[in-house]
Amino acid sequence: MSFSLPNYLESKRLKVEKGLMEVFKNPGDCPKVLWESMKYSIFAGGKRLRPVLCLASAEAVGLPEKSALRIACALELIHTYSLIHDDLPALDNDDYRRGRKTNHKVYGEAMAILAGDGLLTLAFQWLSDPSAYPTKCQKNLAKVNYELAWHAGYPGMVGGQVDDVISEKKRPNLAKVFSIHRRKTGALLISSTRLPALLAGADPKKVKALTEYGKAAGLAFQIVDDILNEVGDSKKLGKAAGSDRERGKMTYPAAIGLERSKKEVKLLTDKAVSALKVFGSKGQPLEALVRHMAERTY
Q1: What is the predicted pLDDT for the residue at 235?
Q2: Which of 49, 113, 138, 206 is the most exposed place for a label (fewest CB within 10 A)?
Q3: Which residue(s) pair with 96 in the sheet?
């Protein structure tokens, strides 16, 4: 039977949505407006790329899907928190995200900041419950939490966001753009592919392969984002096209032009696919995903 990526994406997306609904099943003592603000952004749609990559990586190393969903949901909570904070007036000052008003436009800046804080801490609370995992995975849970904190924090995503902000309006520099993208976007995508392998206690060769795949796929994904911000359709993107150029952002097209950026995407995609050889047919979903990421138009 031939592999159908659209069917695979929809199947995994529905499982992620179900997992996120489980996360938000009981508000407990959470203030009502904070709970609503957090849910507004987490259920705003989106590709759920990081969770799907996580589930595909889990399949490649034999991690039970129930365990993988814990990581997948934590990744989406962290990703969504970062988007809420990115959209704030002090950072990118965006009015729309995924085709509807950004969190601070609906709930105000203070609640948007707190919703992001709430999602970040909830991610680690959800991930850290040892009773949610088989005994053989529990011994690896501390390592998984440590790595996710590292990738989401100042060595990774937050550090990349800082460099992104302070580099605005400066002359484009490829080395700096690479550094920003590797951390701001790439770090969490590496977590998406690497953490399931760590939790499963996979063979080091397979951990390394998924790490290399995540590095190449994550950078390619962000370069495509840069390209689409230049030439994409605002309606499809769900946010204003051309905003990177207006703000003087450091991007691949600004540093090396559109055509060289497109060639770089192809090289990185080929590198990601090459890293999957160790998995044989089990790597097919990951290969299809990275090719899809490279060819997307929104």
Answers
A1: 63
A2: 138
A3: 101
